[in-house]
Write a structure and sequence with these properties.
Length: 378
């Protein structure tokens, strides 16, 4: 009991690591990124192509979250488990063939237990086949600017054509974290998956640091004999969220210890300055022929900058957006940008987007509107 308590105390308190330029982890490759700005705070061989093992599922979960966001599937949709899905080796939750589970249950099992069988079942449900889903994975990687990645499967089992880099993994993690709901799954330490036959599978998170490291709430571990021990982790303290990636570590203990070192380095040496919050109302623009005549515009993300812990900078900003847009209008459509300025220099731009959908007005809508204008003299 004393030994366990000592470990918990060790993991709970900051460990100040060396300056990043002097720090050399055992990992073959590694990176530390600040989430809101995408700024790299540390890297080692960050563009070396390596096997990612189950960290692959970060991209798998990203496409699942996108499908949910786009309405292609719903969390309570029943997902069929094929013979192909149930036969997956490696980490799994032992799904029986020809059964069905809610999409949310399978997503949770991927995030917690790294379930290969669940990943395949979800891929087949979304794209019709794993090969079609893998094609989408590679298309998404290229869209995000990940030029050193090629996926050959949805789960991460070794394949010579299946590789990525620490930098690309950080990009994928950053994109996945836009869907904040993923954290309620990745931060769950244990849960049960109930089966149709009345049995259940106990799922324990493969990322043990979520239980011991302050602020850590994801994301994905990985291991094969070829990939070594890998971990893409994320932690948030105050307004700052960090993403760390370590690839090809010799042991899980070293992987976890060096993840703590990297995160503690970031939290000890940097801070986030929030210039303008994402939900800040930036005004309204006209919607031509819309059911609503105007629509609110907001930032696509917080306007932030990362500073060293002792820095104090001042900022201004400049809003550039169009005055009107034609219906129908889709929530999230970019209509301008906000320039963040420091010392007279634009240091960052953030997209300005539409806050909500606006449907096109029908004839009756336009008639009532014109009548109103006539009556009030507009």
């Amino acid at each position: 009991m004393k030994k366990i308590l000592a470990i918990i105390i060790l993991l709970s308190f900051p460990i100040v690591v060396k300056a990043s330029e002097d720090y050399t982890p055992n990992a073959t490759s590694g990176i530390l990124m600040e989430y809101s700005t995408g700024k790299i705070l540390y890297e080692k061989n960050a563009n070396e192509k390596l096997a990612p093992a189950s960290m692959t599922k970060i991209m798998t979960m990203l496409l699942i979250m996108e499908a949910i966001d786009e309405g292609k599937i719903k969390l309570d949709d029943m997902i069929f488990v094929s013979n192909n899905a149930s036969s997956m080796g490696g980490s799994q939750v032992f799904l029986q063939p020809n059964t069905s589970f809610k999409a949310e249950e399978l997503l949770r099992s991927i995030a917690i237990a790294s379930a290969n069988d669940s990943a395949v079942a979800m891929a087949e449900a979304i794209s019709g086949s794993t090969s079609a889903f893998v094609q989408k994975m590679n298309e998404k990687a290229k869209k995000l600017g990940a030029t050193n990645t090629n996926f050959a499967n949805v789960h991460g089992l070794d394949d010579p054509n299946h590789y990525t880099t620490a930098q690309d993994m950080a990009l994928f993690a950053r994109e996945l974290l836009k869907y904040e709901d993923i954290l309620k799954y990745s931060s769950t330490y244990e849960a049960y998956l109930q089966k149709p036959d009345g049995t259940s599978t106990w799922m324990v998170n493969t990322n043990k640091l979520i239980k011991y490291y302050n602020g850590l709430d994801g994301l994905k571990t990985g291991y094969t004999s070829n990939a070594g021990y890998c971990l893409t982790a994320t932690a948030k303290r105050g307004d700052m969220r960090l993403i760390s990636v370590l690839m090809k570590e010799p042991t899980s203990q070293i992987r976890n210890s060096e993840t703590i070192d990297l995160l503690n380095y970031g939290f000890s040496n940097y801070k986030i300055k929030t210039i303008l919050k994402r939900k800040k109302d930036l005004g309204r623009i006209e919607v031509i022929n819309g059911k609503k005549e105007t629509v609110n515009i907001i930032l696509a993300e917080d306007a932030t900058n990362i500073e060293s812990i002792n820095e104090e900078k001042s900022y201004t900003y400049n809003i550039k957006s169009i005055n009107q847009i034609k219906a129908p209008v889709k929530k999230g459509k970019t209509v301008g940008n906000l320039e963040v300025i420091s010392n007279g220099i634009v240091i960052k731009t953030v997209d300005i987007i539409i806050k909500e959908d606006v449907k096109k007005a029908n004839i009756w809508d336009l008639y009532k509107r014109n009548l109103k204008y006539i009556l009030i003299g507009k």
